[in-house]
Design a protein that fits this description.
This is DUF306 domain-containing protein. It holds the Pfam family META. InterPro entries: DUF306_Meta_HslJ, HslJ-like_sf, Hsp_HslJ-like. The protein is of the alpha+beta class. Strands 1, 2, 3, 4, 5, 6, 7, 8 and 9 form a nine-stranded antiparallel β-sheet that branches. The longest helix is centred in the N-terminal third of the chain and has 18 residues.
């Protein structure tokens, strides 16, 4: 009986150790995206204008960006109006051009809208990591910070 208990305990210990692994779990996909690929398939929602956290009501139209790598076009909102245009991205640089938008009058977010569009015009670099996107000027000053939501496929 003692041999049976010892063998059972050893087999249990080996099976528990065998289950432990340093390899990542296959149940949670790991993003293999890097550089400008991180911009894709997401809606980036503004969280900070410069170092100031945006204070928006749940009902407010939130400034956002979405990128389409196949056409090099972006679209989104400036907090009031829809915006769209073209962009060029490399591993670290990001330039917006041909920015256009609707011309609705918004009482509450007018200043945010103007500041957001002005900041976009100064963007020359970006940092993307996971669900965070930071847009920077040529000197490395943070202009805009976003968090992403993954778009359904």
């Amino acid at each position: 009986m003692n041999k049976f208990v010892v063998v059972t305990l050893m087999a249990s210990a080996i099976s528990f150790v065998g289950c432990a692994s340093n390899e990542p779990s296959t149940h949670y996909p790991i993003s293999r995206e890097h550089g400008s690929e991180l911009l894709q398939k997401r809606t980036w929602v503004l969280t900070h204008l410069g170092s100031t956290r945006t204070q928006l009501k749940a009902t407010d139209n939130k400034p956002s960006l979405s990128f389409d790598q196949s056409t090099n076009r972006f679209s989104g909102s400036d907090g009031c109006n829809r915006i769209m245009g073209t962009y060029k991205a490399t591993e670290q640089s990001l330039l917006f051009s041909a920015v256009a938008g609707t011309q609705m009058m918004c009482q509450e977010n007018q200043q945010l809208s103007a500041n957001y569009k002005q900041a976009l015009s100064k963007v020359s670099r970006y940092k993307a990591s996971g669900h965070h996107l930071t847009l920077l000027d040529a000197q490395g000053t943070t202009l805009l910070r976003f968090e992403s939501t993954v778009q359904p496929r």
